[in-house]
User: What shape does this take?
Amino acid sequence: MKINNIIVILCLSLMTVACTDFLDKKPDIKLVIPKTLHDADLLLNDYGTLNSNYPTFGEIGTDDYYLTKQRWDAISNYDQRMAYTWSDEPYIDAMQWQRPYKVVYIANQVITILSKLPQQGNQEVDYRRAWGAAHFYRAFAFHQLTELYCPAYQKTTGTKELGIPIRLDPGVDEKSHRATLEQTFAQIIGDYKTAVRFLPLIEPVKSRPHKASAYAALARVYLYMGDFEQAYSYADSCIQLKPDLLDFNKLNVNGNNPMTRFNVEVLFPALATGATPMAATTALIDTILYASYSDGDLRKRAFFKPNSNPVDSRYYKGSYDQSNTLFFGITTSEVYLIKAEAATRLGKLADARGTINMLLQSRWDKNSSYVSISESDGDRLLQLILDERRKELVFRGRRWSDLKRLNLEPRFQTTLKRVVGDKSYALPPNDLRYAYRISETVLELSGIQQNER
Assistant: This one.
């Protein structure tokens, strides 16, 4: 069976499944139903679905860039304009919700196919690889949704806060309901741990996850949850398997899109859905953020390009997709930052310094002397690492979740501000709007509960 036939089948289903149970009718399946290991493998090769179109509302709401009134007025998508100013009005566009659930649907389809197959014999390696990948994709999609539509995780309130609908099979008749935030994270972690167990050390298909990808994903999730012991452990396990960092001296940092696609740092490629506010020639880099890069830091040239309107402004050009599409995947550079932050919070200051220095040295101009970080005060070292995290992961889908988790600590709380023409907007720390409103279209068709306001 050709992969296109399989995707046609799924699209027929997903036109109605859209937001988990976006339907009242059963899908009209007239083609051959995928049921073999080969079919499952073909489904997992759907890069356009499984590795693309992840939600951007969170990144739209961050403080790493700004828009002039003229640029904001020119945005035709009303929901995206509202997301920029954190306006608490009904959203209509369901795509931010629907697209990750399409990933979940395909992952569940693969898991269902594989669970019905007999012992694999000489196909066991391929079976384990597909089983692990399906669980990885499902967890990644769930986590993207959770960061956008749920409040920041706190252990003391996780059983009371709303999570997301946890769909675990491709059936479309079961009514959706939102699990608790605790249950949601338990599912994400469980899926990623299954991925760790089954994924291979080496994955020949560059778009697919491998064992180090799952270690990195677990480190990302545990950091967000504030479990620094686990975040450190999984970040260290990832680096043991995949320590590679790009040498920015070998990049054409002055060129357009200098980061090559599927480069040595990429552990899992994932791309954002299109968003006009974040477009390469629309979003203007926050001036304070840009000024925080030292002249010897090659990221200053690799990530940004000058713009004359407004005068002395900058655009972003550093996507790891080597294009103007934002990269929301996982890289070793992020894992180094997770390890460094977690180590600092655990009092392993020497380890933290060694980790952050290794990352920054790979970003430093060889013609400019790098001065190693030697900070011995834990609080100051942590602030320094968080600053470097923001600079390294700019426009990478991490800032929104970082703001949410760091706002739980009074010393790191940030009030976001926007000015559009003569109007000012603000988003205080821990505001309920950090959990974006779910599209009214989704609510009407699924009956799930809206976020608290």
Summary: Strands lie at 65-66, 162-165, 178-180, 266-268, 284-285, 304-307, 313-316, 330-331, 416-420, 423-427. Residues 124-149 form the longest helix (26 residues).
